[in-house]
Amino acid sequence: MQNEIVERSALSAVSVPIPIWISGRIVLTDEIIENGSVLIRGRHIEAVNTPCPDGAITMEAGDGYILPGFIDIHLHGGGGADFMDAEEDSVAIVARAHMHHGTTAMVPTTMTCADELLEQVISCILPTLERPTGGARVLGLHLEGPFFSAAGKGAQPVSEQRIPTKKILEKFISLAEGHILRWDESPELENTLLFAEIMKENGILAAVAHTQANANQAMAAYDAGFSHATHFYNSMSTVHKENGIVHAGVIEATYLRDDVTIELIGDGKHIPRESMQLAYRIKGPDRICLITDAMRAADTDCVQSVLGAKSGGTPVVIKDGVAQLPDLSSYAGSICTMDRALRVAHLEYGLPLTGVSRMLSLTPARLCGCDGMKGSIASGKDADLVIMDREFNVRKVFVEGELLYQA
User: Fold this and answer.
1) Integer Cα distance of 374 and 64 in angstroms
2) Is the pTM value of this prediction over 0.90?
3) Beta carbons within 8 Å of 405's beta carbon, 6+ residues apart
4) Pick from 18, 50, 156, 350: CA 20 to 30 A from residue 177's CA?
5) Phi, psi (degrees; rounded to nearest 5) at 278
6) What is the mean pLDDT of each run of 10 residues along the chain (407 residues)?
7) Cβ-proximal residues to 15 (8 Å cutoff; 6+ apart), any chain
8) Distance (Å, rounded) from C-alpha 329 to C-alpha 48?
9) Pairing assessment for the beta strands 81-82 and 57-68 based on DSSP bridges
10) Rounded distance, CA 40 to CA 158, Å?
């Protein structure tokens, strides 16, 4: 404990960056180095596998692991807060809650709602892009809805679902000042091609979501520029009948497209072991992101909570380690954190650690356009690091070179 106090004091009290040298088992993109080291100076990783310089603060992972910080591209809340609360403080609460579990960067996700509320939510998130939150760094915005099919609604409210129009799309793109990284839509809706065109014009990732489209409709959307599938398998069509004729669904169409990435909720509840293994075999770790899809009850011990805004949101219950609608008819987001997603994918589902690490870090970084600085342990990149013990529990978290958490 005394050494930890000295470390904290040294890290926070000096203005000239003191190098930090961390030794241990390093998880790189394609290999694990058993006796490696990472040298941090200021915000960045200065070197990997280099001798400890004089005057450096030293740390050890012991028999644990040093991994690149996790990047969650789909989450709604945690620590008792939700982005739909439309409060700037809520962003910081969520960022800190998930940082304690290894998330060093995140993309706040909205829900289907009235335009007025969405305006307020975006306005509260934008200021956090420019300054530290005390937790995970905010990379941009993910708009989940309101352009969804009622048939694939999941826990999204039906009352505010609608058809995309040029006017409403341009309104929110302007309001977000270029910070929308991704926008989801059901490809069976009218104006899907218009949606794809406007997303392409503005450099926004278009993703299919909450859909009961058939494979032909999904393929048309992918041809038009959609390139991602939101919480793959969940609220998404597979083989089904339409007017007595069997059709493939979005899942089959997505598997056939090498140019389409997917994301998988990693809580061990939304996706069975075999389904995640199949996705890994077909898509591979460079086209899969692990996500939490976490709602406000993540990192709490709540048994009852609210999905979406705390005033007017959807009541949920926490049962069997997952958020569900009170009638248990549907999951309602998760209470997952990214360290849990790692343990599920690697320890429970048997996927290789290097691949799981890429799905947690490098692949989402690439989708967010920040893989030049984040997502892997390499010289010159941001010092976003997670030190875990041998059971993959988080022990320390660095965000851009700053030690923000110690267990």
Assistant:
1) 22
2) yes
3) 99, 100, 394, 396, 397
4) 156
5) -65, -45
6) 48 70 97 96 96 96 97 98 94 97 98 93 94 92 90 61 91 97 96 98 97 96 98 95 92 98 98 98 98 97 92 90 90 94 98 98 98 98 98 98 97
7) none
8) 49
9) unpaired
10) 48
C-alpha of 191 from chain center: 28
* Amino acid at residue number 215: A
Determine the 3-state secondary structure of 62 from DSSP: strand
Q: Within 10 A of 177 (CB to CB), how many other CB atoms are there?
A: 11
Backbone angles phi, psi at 397, to 5 degrees: -135, 125
Q: Under 8 Å CB-to-CB from 63, ≥6 apart: which residues?
A: 25, 389, 390
Enclosing H/E stretch for 142:
strand 141-144
Determine the Cα angle at 324 with ends 281 and 92, to 5°: 85
User: For the chain, give me the number of helices (H) and strands (E)?
Assistant: 11, 23
Q: Do the Cβ atoms of 231 and 251 come closer than 8 Å?
A: no
**Cβ neighbours of residue 2 closer than 8 Å, sequence gap 6 or more:** none
Question: Which residues have C-beta within 8 Å of that of residue 24, sequence separation ≥ 6?
Answer: 35, 36, 37, 60, 61, 62, 64, 65, 66, 387
Inter-CA distances, 393 with 2, 58, 228, Å: 22, 20, 30
Provide the CA 327 distance to its chain's centre, in angstroms: 27
Tokens representing residue 69 in the block: 């910080």
How many angstroms separate the CA atoms of 33 and 364, rounded? 23
Q: For residue 205, what are the β-bridge partners? A: 182
Domains and their CATH numbers in the chain? 2-68+375-406 (2.30.40.10), 70-368 (3.20.20.140)
What dihedral angle (degrees, nearest 10) is formed by the CA atoms of 173, 310, 341, 70? 50
Specify the amino acid at residue 171: K
> Residue 14, exposed/middle/buried by CB under 10 A (0-12, 13-18, 19+)?
exposed
